[in-house]
Phage tail fibre protein N-terminal domain-containing protein (Anaerobutyricum hallii), 126 residues
Amino acid sequence: MAGTTVTTKAKKKMLQARAGIAALPKITGMAFGTGGVNESGAIIPHSAEQNVLHKEVLRKAIDGYEVVSDTKIRYSCTLAENELAGVYISECGLYDADGDMVAMKSFMKKGKDGDMEAVFECEDMF
């Protein structure tokens, strides 16, 4: 699995929040896409300058989060049976309350069946 890319926009927001210039918007959703691999199945990494997935197909509010440690929070999002049925998902990302992508990850294609839910988890850590 490819590494997670934290966006430049997210880094800028963190720096501004630390300086007291602006409040840091919370993570509110997860985006899913089909552009994380090329035709031969090789993973296509994201650039920190991107603010969108390669080929986004759905944005959905997160189910919630779990504080794993002082430096790690795990976000989860459930795709219902009817969501993205028959679609091969190969990238996902976390976005904030402003709608800006915070972090993105590409991975091998995962097929989504129409008769089952699928839970995706993304970790935010330092």
Remarks:
- The chain has one domain: 5-16+25-125.
- The mean pLDDT is 96.
